[in-house]
Amino acid sequence: MIVVSMIVKDSLTRVGEGVFKKVLDSTLQIPYESFVLVSDGTDGTEGFVRRWCEGHGKELVVARSNLYGHERPTRATARQTAIDLFLSNFSDEWLMFIDDDAVLNEGWWGWVAENRALEDPQVGEVWGINWDATPERKNFLALFGVKLEDYLVRKFHERGGCHDTLYRRKAIEGIMIPPELHVYEDAYLHHYVARRGWKSVVNPVGVTHYHPLPTLTLREEKEKAKLAIHAALKYGICEYEYMKPIRQTLRSRALAYLSLLRPVLGLAPMMLTTVKVFGPRRGVVEAFKRQYLKLWFRWQVLKAVKGMRAGSMPEMPDLAHSCAHEAMK
Predict the structure, then answer these.
(1) Which of 24, 121, 9, 133 is nearest to 65 (CA)?
(2) pLDDT per position as a tens digit, 166-177
(3) Domain of 20?
């Protein structure tokens, strides 16, 4: 009934053998026989998975990304390859994606079975909450009166997630994820399913995510932000409250430019919060980094939107319309 799939690139090197084995072992609670691995790396991850599957009686299908005309492998090409392999080689009803750093919590499948989540013919997607392995984000949100669970579920509805997600065969038939989406390919997949009228179910048991808050350099943060701007403007995929650019001509250019002051005025409150969570030294650095990135991002959005013609972008998910109204918050 279920095929499990994972897209990887040097997972053993990136997450370590201990965590990676815990991820694989945690899938044993799922009733599946076949495992689809799309590997675009060069370390021993593929061999490790092969030995694990042999030891647990799982059929393994291994492939590298089909590039779909793109110049290099991306998360989108890997995700699409896994979907294509599932649709063309298996008759099972459900494809399950699991990330290489997300350990299924005990009872994940039990919750699905007890709540008969797969028996509803209108359900096309079942997603488990990606609980952090460390407390920083929970503590940070608590200072603003926000529950981590509420935040994570809201983020899922905004941009999806494939940490531990089941997709019904009919819900993903016909999808072609744009190969350029090295980030937000999961958002594209989520909104594709939603736009076709399928319901999503949230499994509160979820996973323990062992890399929930990666430490990125300022340069890496900017590169990620540039990808976010591109994805938001072209496909309507938005993430983070301060990363919601608009898809139409700004009604009030003056107000948009005044919004650049918000990160500056918010530095002191942010510093009070980050110091409480991370301590004095790291907290000060985090505050300056976060507010600088907000300011820089908003400026980049204004430059990107300035030369755009209204209606010049293709319609993708309905989320695009909410992006227009959430501009420059």
Answers:
(1) 9
(2) 999 999 999 999
(3) 2-209
